[in-house]
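Box 3.1 A note on notation
Throughout this textbook, protein chains are presented in two layers. The first layer is the amino acid sequence; the second is a token string describing backbone geometry. Keep the layers aligned when reading.
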Amino acid sequence: MMRPMVLTRDIILSGQVSWAGSSSMEIRVRMYYADSGGGANEEEEDILVSYFNFVAREQETGKAAQINTLDPQTAVEQAWFAEGARRSDVRREARRVAQSLVKDEKQLLLDRLRHKQIQTMLDASRPFATLPALAPRDTVLIEKTVLTNTLVTQPQHQNTAGRVFGGFLMRRAFEIAFSCAYIFR
């Protein structure tokens, strides 16, 4: 967000394709006040500008599908297109680097180091688990923070297929998490 929103003013949300590659496109979404007119000085009027990336996939194979090309006409559209191409290149390079790191031997060494650090922490905490009196007073073992709940669902909590609604389950999970945090804070 570029500036705070004034909720008493009308807001316009507009979007357009700002860049298109061979199988992906970038959508530029702009939020601005209705009374600002969306004139020539867009940046001063914008409340929010965001970019969404979409990739076309073949339904049968799941592979990238060819999309139509984009032909920017105005100087502003050409600037958006160039920025979108730059962001696409940055994303492509980040994917390439991430893939090469996975295969790299340095990654294996880092994994071994992390494993050794985790093992050291577990070894250091083992006496507290076996002799809790040695632990600091404000320490609670994770195994002592368990909170369980059993509930019976009623027909109104189920959909037409007889399965429990996901929203109902999420609400119950949140309530248990809140209760657990409250009890063991």
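Residues 146-185 form one domain. The beta strands are 11-20, 24-33, 46-55.
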